[in-house]
Specification:
By secondary structure, this protein is of the alpha/beta class. It has a domain of about 120 residues. It contains five helices and 33 strands. The strands form two sheets. The protein has a 30-stranded mixed β-sheet that branches. A three-stranded antiparallel β-sheet has the order 2-1-9. The radius of gyration is 29 Å and the shape is flat. It starts with a helix and ends with a strand.
Length: about 450
């Protein structure tokens, strides 16, 4: 049993107590789940520790004086003709509060052909399974509204979609269905919702599982409004992913050609990825990529959120970040280009040339291999660059306000309060380091 199912069962078992107290209890236990999950416990572990929800509800009712032996009575206010609108407003407010706190077990809506529906929601079970043969299809398009989705390969020669779960709603019109169609060389898998003018909220626990034949080498396009996406062990031609809101987890993905990931809000976790080109556009959310090989260019455009890269190999890496820290480990490429408005930049074990430009934030770079240029510029922030002792370089460093320190013995040294220039060994690599406000440290590693 997960958190949603447990709270639903607890809510149903508390039907004998006043609605406001019922709502308060659910709020308290929802908060309890949140705190315990932040401490590392799983939903299943928390449910197990709380015990049977019916037993827990009985204890709560006894503790609050609503057990079978209680003599409590409830006073009902007399009806007032001139207070009818206030009464209606109070009832609607109570329903909305219940919907928000509990995810919508009571709702009201306008539904096609039925006018205004107002009352308790009904539970609907979903087990919608559809299949289709790929035949000569070149593209698979997947469209979801709010359902969590997983995409996996299959040794079968059919494409299969399974929409499974439960929904509480006032009308079957609100229950999602699965539709698979073919249009030319494109197969469309779509989560459909026949909803018209919904007012209020409703609750659902639905998952969409999609399996794609291992033999399919065409393009996969995913469009999600909200809901998480997980995909693993795919080997396809192209991968286009666009989500408005929701987390994305990708494991062991091989894309023969191009891959583009676009997100309005949500985190990305990508492990073991191969592609020819990769573009990531993220408005809000953290990004983490590990064990990635991109044959050509890897470009990241991020408005907010941290970026973590580990064991990345590509031709060129470009990062344009408005806000958020950038942490990179074990980078092999010809050139990295980073431009950030706000946030620290940390690059460790760089193998390649670099151009890093930061408006606000500290920059820390350790170089393993380079052959042409390391260019680092900061408007406000310290710069720390660590170079191998056997790498020769020509240093040109300047700061408007701050100190410059260098561990290396330089030839043809030129130094004053704001400048340090010189040559180390043969001077092969150009180190161009500048900051308007901050210290510069060139260290031996």
């Amino acid at each position: 049993m997960n958190r949603t199912q447990y709270l639903m069962a607890l809510y149903d078992a508390l039907k004998d107590i006043p609605s406001q107290e019922r709502t308060d209890v659910i709020s308290e236990y929802r908060e309890y789940f949140r705190i315990e999950m932040e401490n590392g416990r799983t939903e299943e572990e928390i449910c197990s520790s709380l015990g049977d929800p019916v037993t827990l509800a009985y204890a709560i009712k006894q503790r609050r004086g609503y057990g079978p032996d209680s003599q409590e009575t409830f006073y009902k206010k007399p009806h007032r003709k001139n207070g009818i609108f206030k009464t209606i407003a109070t009832v609607i407010s109570a329903i909305v509060v219940l919907c928000i706190v509990f995810g919508g077990t009571i709702m009201f809506s306008f539904s096609k052909g039925k006018g205004l529906i107002f009352g308790a929601a009904k539970k609907y079970e979903i087990n919608d399974v559809r299949t289709i043969t790929p035949d000569s299809a070149k593209t698979i398009i997947i469209k979801t509204a709010s359902t969590d989705t997983s995409i996996l390969p299959s040794d079968s020669e059919i494409i299969k979609g399974s929409l499974v779960g439960n929904v509480r709603a006032t009308s079957p019109d609100h229950v999602p269905t699965l539709k698979i169609t073919r249009s030319g060389d494109t197969i469309i898998i779509e989560e459909k919702r026949e909803v018209f003018g919904v007012i209020g909220f409703y609750w659902e626990d639905v998952k969409l599982d999609i399996s794609i034949p291992e033999s399919f080498k065409g393009a996969v396009e995913f469009e999600g409004t909200s809901g998480d996406l997980k995909a693993s062990d795919l080997d396809i031609g192209n991968f286009l992913l666009k989500v408005s809101s929701g987390n994305v987890r990708l494991d062991n993905i091989t894309v023969e050609n191009n891959m583009k990931l676009t997100s309005g809000s949500g985190d990305f976790m990508v492990k073991e990825l191969k592609a020819t080109k990769l573009i990531l556009q993220s408005t809000a959310g953290n990004k983490e990529f590990r064990d990635v090989y991109i044959k050509e260019n890897f470009n990241i455009n991020s408005t907010s959120g941290d970026t973590v890269l580990n064991s990345i190999k590509c031709h060129e890496l470009g990062i344009d970040s408005t806000s958020g820290n950038i942490n990179i480990d074990k980078l092999q490429l010809d050139r990295i280009s980073i431009e950030t408005k706000s946030g620290d930049v940390n690059v460790r074990d760089l193998e390649g040339n670099a151009q890093i430009d930061a408006s606000s934030g500290n920059i820390n770079v350790s170089v393993k291999e380079a052959d042409e240029e390391i260019y680092i510029k900061a408007i406000s922030g310290d710069i720390e660059l660590r170079m191998p002792a056997d790498k020769s370089f020509t240093l040109d460093s300047r700061t408007s306000s701050g100190n410059i320190n260098c561990d290396f013995k330089l030839e043809d040294k030129v130094s004053d309060d704001n400048t340090l220039k010189g040559i180390y060994l043969n001077g092969d690599i150009l180190l161009n380091i500048k900051t308007s406000s901050g210290n510069i440290d060139i260290e031996r590693q």
